[in-house]
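Issue: ligand-bound run for NAP - logging full I/O for the record.

Environment: standard queue, default settings, no custom constraints.

Inputs:
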Amino acid sequence: MRDACKEIPDLVQSLAGEMQKLQISQARLEDNVQTLTNRVDNVEIDTRKSIDAYLEVQAQKVEKELNEWLEVKDREISAKIESDVKTVVEQATAAASVARVVESRAADFPVGRHVVGYWGWRDRTVADVGPDAPYFMSPAMLVPDLGELPLSLSLGVLGMPGISAYFGLLEVCKPKEGEVAVVSGAAGAVGSIVGQIARLKWCKVIGFAGSDAKVKWLKEELGFHHAFNYKTNDVTEALKQAAPDGVDVYFDNVGGELSSAVVNSMREWGRISVCGSISGYNESSLPKATIIQPAAIYKQLRMEGFLYSRWHDRWEEGITQLTQWVREGKIKYCETVTEGFQNTPKAFAGMLQGDNLGKAVVKV
Ligand SMILES: NC(=O)c1ccc[n+]([C@@H]2O[C@H](COP(=O)([O-])OP(=O)(O)OC[C@H]3O[C@@H](n4cnc5c(N)ncnc54)[C@H](OP(=O)(O)O)[C@@H]3O)[C@@H](O)[C@H]2O)c1
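Outputs:
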Protein backbone atom coordinates (compact mmCIF):
# COMPACT_ATOMS: atom_id res chain seq x y z
CA MET A 1 0.00 0.00 0.00
CA ARG A 2 1.52 3.27 -1.09
CA ASP A 3 1.01 6.43 0.87
CA ALA A 4 -0.78 8.39 -1.79
CA CYS A 5 -0.01 11.75 -0.16
CA LYS A 6 3.58 11.42 -1.35
CA GLU A 7 2.33 11.74 -4.90
CA ILE A 8 0.92 15.19 -4.34
CA PRO A 9 4.16 17.14 -4.95
CA ASP A 10 4.48 15.61 -8.43
CA LEU A 11 0.90 16.39 -9.20
CA VAL A 12 1.27 19.91 -7.89
CA GLN A 13 4.31 20.54 -10.08
CA SER A 14 2.46 19.21 -13.05
CA LEU A 15 -0.52 21.35 -12.14
CA ALA A 16 1.74 24.39 -11.89
CA GLY A 17 2.72 23.85 -15.53
CA GLU A 18 -0.88 23.68 -16.57
CA MET A 19 -1.85 26.74 -14.54
CA GLN A 20 0.95 28.74 -16.12
CA LYS A 21 -0.74 28.20 -19.44
CA LEU A 22 -3.79 29.88 -17.91
CA GLN A 23 -1.62 32.97 -17.35
CA ILE A 24 -1.94 33.06 -13.61
CA SER A 25 0.55 35.31 -11.82
CA GLN A 26 3.85 33.44 -11.73
CA ALA A 27 4.84 34.69 -8.29
CA ARG A 28 1.52 33.79 -6.79
CA LEU A 29 1.62 30.35 -8.32
CA GLU A 30 5.18 29.58 -7.21
CA ASP A 31 4.46 30.79 -3.73
CA ASN A 32 1.43 28.59 -3.35
CA VAL A 33 2.97 25.55 -4.98
CA GLN A 34 6.02 25.86 -2.74
CA THR A 35 3.83 26.17 0.33
CA LEU A 36 1.88 23.08 -0.52
CA THR A 37 5.01 21.10 -1.40
CA ASN A 38 6.72 22.04 1.88
CA ARG A 39 3.75 21.14 3.90
CA VAL A 40 3.32 17.81 2.19
CA ASP A 41 7.02 17.02 2.78
CA ASN A 42 6.65 17.80 6.46
CA VAL A 43 3.59 15.73 7.08
CA GLU A 44 3.74 12.27 8.50
CA ILE A 45 0.54 10.45 8.08
CA ASP A 46 -0.03 7.24 9.93
CA THR A 47 -2.12 5.53 7.33
CA ARG A 48 -2.54 2.50 9.58
CA LYS A 49 -4.32 4.45 12.29
CA SER A 50 -8.04 3.73 12.56
CA ILE A 51 -8.11 1.91 9.25
CA ASP A 52 -11.54 0.86 8.22
CA ALA A 53 -11.26 0.32 4.53
CA TYR A 54 -8.77 0.28 1.69
CA LEU A 55 -9.96 1.98 -1.39
CA GLU A 56 -8.86 1.69 -4.96
CA VAL A 57 -9.83 4.69 -6.97
CA GLN A 58 -11.31 3.96 -10.35
CA ALA A 59 -12.52 7.28 -11.62
CA GLN A 60 -11.93 10.71 -10.32
CA LYS A 61 -13.73 13.96 -10.46
CA VAL A 62 -11.89 17.11 -11.46
CA GLU A 63 -12.86 19.85 -9.07
CA LYS A 64 -12.18 23.50 -8.64
CA GLU A 65 -11.27 23.45 -4.98
CA LEU A 66 -7.57 22.81 -5.61
CA ASN A 67 -7.58 25.88 -7.72
CA GLU A 68 -9.19 27.78 -4.90
CA TRP A 69 -6.54 26.55 -2.53
CA LEU A 70 -3.71 27.52 -4.82
CA GLU A 71 -5.14 30.88 -5.65
CA VAL A 72 -7.20 32.04 -2.72
CA LYS A 73 -4.51 32.04 -0.16
CA ASP A 74 -6.04 34.35 2.38
CA ARG A 75 -9.43 32.82 2.62
CA GLU A 76 -10.98 30.09 4.66
CA ILE A 77 -8.89 27.19 3.35
CA SER A 78 -5.58 28.76 4.29
CA ALA A 79 -6.87 29.24 7.81
CA LYS A 80 -7.29 25.51 7.90
CA ILE A 81 -3.67 25.06 6.80
CA GLU A 82 -2.48 26.85 9.89
CA SER A 83 -4.74 24.94 12.20
CA ASP A 84 -4.53 21.45 10.80
CA VAL A 85 -1.87 20.56 8.28
CA LYS A 86 -2.92 16.98 7.90
CA THR A 87 -6.48 17.94 7.14
CA VAL A 88 -5.49 20.38 4.48
CA VAL A 89 -3.16 17.96 2.75
CA GLU A 90 -6.08 15.65 2.49
CA GLN A 91 -8.39 18.44 1.43
CA ALA A 92 -6.06 20.46 -0.77
CA THR A 93 -7.04 18.36 -3.71
CA ALA A 94 -10.62 18.12 -2.61
CA ALA A 95 -11.85 15.97 -5.43
CA ALA A 96 -14.30 13.17 -4.95
CA SER A 97 -13.53 9.66 -6.12
CA VAL A 98 -15.48 6.54 -6.69
CA ALA A 99 -13.52 3.62 -5.41
CA ARG A 100 -13.72 -0.10 -4.85
CA VAL A 101 -13.17 -1.40 -1.34
CA VAL A 102 -10.31 -3.88 -1.52
CA GLU A 103 -9.87 -4.61 2.18
CA SER A 104 -12.14 -3.66 5.04
CA ARG A 105 -12.81 -3.90 8.73
CA ALA A 106 -15.99 -1.84 8.44
CA ALA A 107 -19.08 -4.02 8.33
CA ASP A 108 -21.04 -1.41 6.37
CA PHE A 109 -18.31 -1.11 3.71
CA PRO A 110 -17.67 -4.67 2.56
CA VAL A 111 -14.93 -5.71 0.14
CA GLY A 112 -16.03 -5.41 -3.47
CA ARG A 113 -18.57 -2.64 -2.94
CA HIS A 114 -17.97 0.80 -4.40
CA VAL A 115 -17.89 3.96 -2.34
CA VAL A 116 -17.82 7.68 -3.08
CA GLY A 117 -15.86 10.04 -0.88
CA TYR A 118 -13.62 13.08 -0.83
CA TRP A 119 -10.08 11.72 -0.73
CA GLY A 120 -8.42 14.18 -3.09
CA TRP A 121 -6.18 13.35 -6.02
CA ARG A 122 -4.90 9.89 -5.25
CA ASP A 123 -5.16 6.53 -6.92
CA ARG A 124 -5.61 4.54 -3.71
CA THR A 125 -6.07 5.38 -0.13
CA VAL A 126 -6.79 4.17 3.36
CA ALA A 127 -9.84 5.81 4.83
CA ASP A 128 -11.68 5.85 8.10
CA VAL A 129 -15.29 5.32 7.18
CA GLY A 130 -16.69 4.48 10.59
CA PRO A 131 -19.78 6.23 11.95
CA ASP A 132 -17.71 8.84 13.80
CA ALA A 133 -15.11 9.31 11.05
CA PRO A 134 -14.31 12.92 10.19
CA TYR A 135 -15.18 13.89 6.66
CA PHE A 136 -14.96 16.75 4.20
CA MET A 137 -18.26 17.92 2.66
CA SER A 138 -19.90 14.47 2.64
CA PRO A 139 -19.20 11.24 4.49
CA ALA A 140 -18.16 8.24 2.41
CA MET A 141 -21.22 6.65 0.86
CA LEU A 142 -21.86 3.28 -0.72
CA VAL A 143 -22.72 3.44 -4.40
CA PRO A 144 -26.08 1.80 -5.11
CA ASP A 145 -26.23 -0.87 -7.80
CA LEU A 146 -26.21 1.14 -11.04
CA GLY A 147 -26.82 -1.90 -13.23
CA GLU A 148 -25.69 -1.19 -16.77
CA LEU A 149 -24.90 2.47 -16.07
CA PRO A 150 -21.24 3.53 -15.78
CA LEU A 151 -19.85 3.70 -12.27
CA SER A 152 -18.46 7.19 -12.91
CA LEU A 153 -22.01 8.55 -13.00
CA SER A 154 -21.87 8.44 -9.22
CA LEU A 155 -19.53 11.45 -9.56
CA GLY A 156 -21.85 13.19 -12.00
CA VAL A 157 -25.56 13.01 -12.71
CA LEU A 158 -26.05 10.29 -10.07
CA GLY A 159 -23.84 11.98 -7.48
CA MET A 160 -23.05 15.37 -6.03
CA PRO A 161 -23.61 17.38 -9.25
CA GLY A 162 -26.97 15.64 -9.80
CA ILE A 163 -28.03 16.32 -6.20
CA SER A 164 -26.95 19.98 -6.53
CA ALA A 165 -29.00 20.34 -9.72
CA TYR A 166 -32.05 18.51 -8.40
CA PHE A 167 -32.48 20.10 -4.99
CA GLY A 168 -30.74 23.38 -5.86
CA LEU A 169 -33.31 23.97 -8.59
CA LEU A 170 -36.46 22.38 -7.18
CA GLU A 171 -36.10 23.39 -3.53
CA VAL A 172 -34.55 26.82 -3.94
CA CYS A 173 -36.28 28.08 -7.09
CA LYS A 174 -39.49 26.03 -7.01
CA PRO A 175 -40.01 26.34 -10.80
CA LYS A 176 -43.58 26.34 -12.07
CA GLU A 177 -45.01 25.23 -15.38
CA GLY A 178 -44.71 27.93 -18.04
CA GLU A 179 -42.02 29.90 -16.23
CA VAL A 180 -38.76 30.97 -17.85
CA ALA A 181 -35.70 29.27 -16.35
CA VAL A 182 -32.14 30.39 -17.16
CA VAL A 183 -29.00 28.43 -16.31
CA SER A 184 -25.38 29.52 -16.68
CA GLY A 185 -22.52 27.03 -16.98
CA ALA A 186 -25.27 25.21 -18.84
CA ALA A 187 -23.10 22.58 -20.51
CA GLY A 188 -21.29 21.64 -17.30
CA ALA A 189 -22.01 18.79 -14.91
CA VAL A 190 -24.58 20.66 -12.85
CA GLY A 191 -25.98 23.05 -15.45
CA SER A 192 -26.73 20.39 -18.05
CA ILE A 193 -28.88 18.53 -15.50
CA VAL A 194 -30.56 21.69 -14.18
CA GLY A 195 -31.77 22.65 -17.65
CA GLN A 196 -33.21 19.20 -18.29
CA ILE A 197 -35.01 19.09 -14.94
CA ALA A 198 -36.48 22.54 -15.62
CA ARG A 199 -37.66 21.26 -18.98
CA LEU A 200 -39.26 18.22 -17.30
CA LYS A 201 -41.08 20.71 -15.04
CA TRP A 202 -42.45 22.39 -18.18
CA CYS A 203 -40.40 25.54 -18.00
CA LYS A 204 -39.04 27.40 -20.98
CA VAL A 205 -35.30 26.74 -20.61
CA ILE A 206 -32.51 29.07 -21.68
CA GLY A 207 -28.84 28.14 -21.28
CA PHE A 208 -25.58 30.05 -21.52
CA ALA A 209 -22.36 28.22 -22.36
CA GLY A 210 -18.93 29.06 -23.73
CA SER A 211 -18.82 27.58 -27.25
CA ASP A 212 -21.02 27.08 -30.29
CA ALA A 213 -20.56 23.31 -30.03
CA LYS A 214 -21.90 23.38 -26.46
CA VAL A 215 -24.83 25.55 -27.54
CA LYS A 216 -25.65 23.08 -30.31
CA TRP A 217 -25.53 20.17 -27.84
CA LEU A 218 -27.82 21.96 -25.38
CA LYS A 219 -30.42 22.69 -28.04
CA GLU A 220 -30.23 19.58 -30.19
CA GLU A 221 -29.49 16.87 -27.63
CA LEU A 222 -30.72 18.14 -24.27
CA GLY A 223 -33.86 19.96 -25.41
CA PHE A 224 -33.04 23.46 -24.17
CA HIS A 225 -35.47 25.86 -25.83
CA HIS A 226 -32.76 28.46 -26.34
CA ALA A 227 -29.02 28.47 -25.77
CA PHE A 228 -26.40 31.15 -26.35
CA ASN A 229 -22.64 31.37 -26.48
CA TYR A 230 -21.97 34.00 -23.81
CA LYS A 231 -18.58 34.75 -25.38
CA THR A 232 -20.08 35.90 -28.68
CA ASN A 233 -23.52 37.16 -27.58
CA ASP A 234 -24.64 40.03 -25.42
CA VAL A 235 -26.47 38.31 -22.56
CA THR A 236 -29.04 41.10 -22.05
CA GLU A 237 -29.84 41.23 -25.75
CA ALA A 238 -30.10 37.44 -25.94
CA LEU A 239 -32.58 37.43 -23.06
CA LYS A 240 -34.63 40.24 -24.61
CA GLN A 241 -35.00 38.05 -27.64
CA ALA A 242 -35.63 34.70 -25.91
CA ALA A 243 -37.55 35.92 -22.86
CA PRO A 244 -39.12 39.30 -23.70
CA ASP A 245 -41.30 39.24 -20.55
CA GLY A 246 -38.38 38.46 -18.27
CA VAL A 247 -36.85 35.55 -16.40
CA ASP A 248 -38.54 33.80 -13.45
CA VAL A 249 -35.85 31.40 -12.32
CA TYR A 250 -32.07 31.69 -12.53
CA PHE A 251 -29.68 28.88 -11.58
CA ASP A 252 -26.30 30.57 -11.26
CA ASN A 253 -23.13 28.52 -11.71
CA VAL A 254 -20.79 31.29 -12.75
CA GLY A 255 -21.43 34.67 -11.07
CA GLY A 256 -19.81 37.83 -12.48
CA GLU A 257 -21.14 40.06 -15.23
CA LEU A 258 -23.07 37.28 -16.96
CA SER A 259 -25.10 36.76 -13.79
CA SER A 260 -25.65 40.48 -13.26
CA ALA A 261 -27.10 40.66 -16.77
CA VAL A 262 -29.46 37.75 -16.04
CA VAL A 263 -30.56 39.15 -12.66
CA ASN A 264 -31.22 42.53 -14.26
CA SER A 265 -33.42 40.74 -16.82
CA MET A 266 -35.65 39.09 -14.23
CA ARG A 267 -39.37 39.41 -13.72
CA GLU A 268 -41.10 40.33 -10.48
CA TRP A 269 -40.89 37.61 -7.77
CA GLY A 270 -38.01 35.85 -9.55
CA ARG A 271 -35.93 33.27 -7.70
CA ILE A 272 -32.17 32.85 -7.98
CA SER A 273 -30.30 29.77 -6.82
CA VAL A 274 -26.59 30.50 -6.35
CA CYS A 275 -24.63 27.30 -6.89
CA GLY A 276 -21.19 28.49 -8.05
CA SER A 277 -19.16 31.50 -9.13
CA ILE A 278 -16.55 29.94 -11.40
CA SER A 279 -15.99 33.21 -13.29
CA GLY A 280 -14.16 34.49 -10.21
CA TYR A 281 -12.25 31.40 -9.07
CA ASN A 282 -9.06 32.44 -10.87
CA GLU A 283 -9.13 36.09 -9.87
CA SER A 284 -6.74 37.36 -7.24
CA SER A 285 -9.23 40.03 -6.16
CA LEU A 286 -13.00 39.93 -6.17
CA PRO A 287 -14.28 40.65 -9.71
CA LYS A 288 -16.40 43.74 -10.26
CA ALA A 289 -19.82 43.38 -11.85
CA THR A 290 -22.85 45.58 -12.44
CA ILE A 291 -24.88 45.94 -9.25
CA ILE A 292 -28.05 43.86 -8.91
CA GLN A 293 -29.62 45.48 -5.86
CA PRO A 294 -32.01 47.78 -7.74
CA ALA A 295 -33.44 44.78 -9.63
CA ALA A 296 -33.61 42.79 -6.39
CA ILE A 297 -35.59 45.59 -4.72
CA TYR A 298 -37.96 46.68 -7.45
CA LYS A 299 -38.65 43.18 -8.71
CA GLN A 300 -38.77 41.69 -5.20
CA LEU A 301 -36.33 38.92 -6.11
CA ARG A 302 -35.20 36.15 -3.79
CA MET A 303 -31.58 34.97 -4.00
CA GLU A 304 -30.32 31.99 -2.02
CA GLY A 305 -26.96 30.27 -2.00
CA PHE A 306 -26.71 26.60 -1.13
CA LEU A 307 -24.32 23.78 -0.44
CA TYR A 308 -25.45 20.42 -1.74
CA SER A 309 -24.70 18.87 1.66
CA ARG A 310 -27.87 20.57 2.94
CA TRP A 311 -29.80 17.70 1.38
CA HIS A 312 -27.61 14.89 2.55
CA ASP A 313 -30.50 13.21 4.34
CA ARG A 314 -32.52 13.26 1.10
CA TRP A 315 -29.69 11.87 -1.06
CA GLU A 316 -31.48 8.60 -1.82
CA GLU A 317 -34.65 10.41 -2.86
CA GLY A 318 -32.74 12.59 -5.33
CA ILE A 319 -30.60 9.80 -6.75
CA THR A 320 -33.59 7.47 -7.14
CA GLN A 321 -35.47 10.09 -9.18
CA LEU A 322 -32.42 11.00 -11.26
CA THR A 323 -31.65 7.32 -11.96
CA GLN A 324 -35.21 6.79 -13.12
CA TRP A 325 -35.04 9.80 -15.46
CA VAL A 326 -31.68 8.64 -16.85
CA ARG A 327 -33.01 5.11 -17.44
CA GLU A 328 -36.13 6.49 -19.12
CA GLY A 329 -33.98 8.68 -21.38
CA LYS A 330 -35.58 11.83 -19.95
CA ILE A 331 -32.23 13.08 -18.72
CA LYS A 332 -29.17 12.71 -20.90
CA TYR A 333 -25.65 12.99 -19.62
CA CYS A 334 -22.21 13.48 -21.05
CA GLU A 335 -18.82 12.84 -19.48
CA THR A 336 -15.48 14.21 -20.58
CA VAL A 337 -13.12 11.42 -19.59
CA THR A 338 -9.36 11.90 -19.25
CA GLU A 339 -7.41 8.66 -19.20
CA GLY A 340 -4.63 8.23 -16.64
CA PHE A 341 -4.13 9.49 -13.11
CA GLN A 342 -1.00 11.42 -14.12
CA ASN A 343 -3.12 13.53 -16.49
CA THR A 344 -5.33 14.85 -13.67
CA PRO A 345 -3.74 18.35 -13.64
CA LYS A 346 -4.23 18.62 -17.39
CA ALA A 347 -7.87 17.63 -17.04
CA PHE A 348 -8.28 20.12 -14.22
CA ALA A 349 -6.83 23.02 -16.22
CA GLY A 350 -8.90 21.96 -19.24
CA MET A 351 -12.07 22.10 -17.14
CA LEU A 352 -11.25 25.66 -16.07
CA GLN A 353 -10.86 26.58 -19.74
CA GLY A 354 -14.23 25.07 -20.57
CA ASP A 355 -12.95 22.00 -22.43
CA ASN A 356 -15.45 19.73 -20.71
CA LEU A 357 -18.93 18.83 -21.89
CA GLY A 358 -20.88 17.55 -18.90
CA LYS A 359 -18.91 16.05 -16.05
CA ALA A 360 -15.11 16.03 -16.23
CA VAL A 361 -13.70 12.80 -14.79
CA VAL A 362 -10.34 11.11 -14.75
CA LYS A 363 -10.16 7.37 -15.30
CA VAL A 364 -7.43 6.39 -12.89
N1 LIG B 1 -22.96 24.89 -4.08
C1 LIG B 1 -22.70 23.61 -4.24
O1 LIG B 1 -22.98 22.76 -3.38
C2 LIG B 1 -22.05 23.18 -5.53
C3 LIG B 1 -22.11 21.85 -5.95
C4 LIG B 1 -21.55 21.51 -7.19
C5 LIG B 1 -20.92 22.48 -7.95
N2 LIG B 1 -20.86 23.76 -7.48
C6 LIG B 1 -20.30 24.82 -8.32
O2 LIG B 1 -21.16 24.94 -9.43
C7 LIG B 1 -20.46 25.34 -10.57
C8 LIG B 1 -20.69 24.34 -11.68
O3 LIG B 1 -20.13 23.11 -11.30
P1 LIG B 1 -19.96 21.98 -12.40
O4 LIG B 1 -19.45 20.78 -11.71
O5 LIG B 1 -21.18 21.91 -13.23
O6 LIG B 1 -18.83 22.62 -13.29
P2 LIG B 1 -18.08 21.95 -14.49
O7 LIG B 1 -18.83 20.86 -15.11
O8 LIG B 1 -16.73 21.65 -14.02
O9 LIG B 1 -18.07 23.10 -15.54
C9 LIG B 1 -17.26 24.18 -15.41
C10 LIG B 1 -17.62 25.07 -16.60
O10 LIG B 1 -17.68 26.41 -16.16
C11 LIG B 1 -17.53 27.22 -17.31
N3 LIG B 1 -16.72 28.39 -17.01
C12 LIG B 1 -15.41 28.42 -16.70
N4 LIG B 1 -15.01 29.70 -16.53
C13 LIG B 1 -16.11 30.47 -16.75
C14 LIG B 1 -16.34 31.87 -16.75
N5 LIG B 1 -15.36 32.73 -16.48
N6 LIG B 1 -17.60 32.32 -17.00
C15 LIG B 1 -18.60 31.47 -17.27
N7 LIG B 1 -18.43 30.12 -17.30
C16 LIG B 1 -17.20 29.64 -17.04
C17 LIG B 1 -16.83 26.37 -18.37
O11 LIG B 1 -17.76 26.16 -19.41
P3 LIG B 1 -18.00 27.24 -20.57
O12 LIG B 1 -17.35 26.67 -21.79
O13 LIG B 1 -19.49 27.30 -20.67
O14 LIG B 1 -17.38 28.55 -20.16
C18 LIG B 1 -16.55 25.07 -17.66
O15 LIG B 1 -16.68 23.95 -18.52
C19 LIG B 1 -19.01 25.45 -10.16
O16 LIG B 1 -18.79 26.79 -9.88
C20 LIG B 1 -18.92 24.60 -8.90
O17 LIG B 1 -17.92 25.08 -8.08
C21 LIG B 1 -21.40 24.12 -6.30
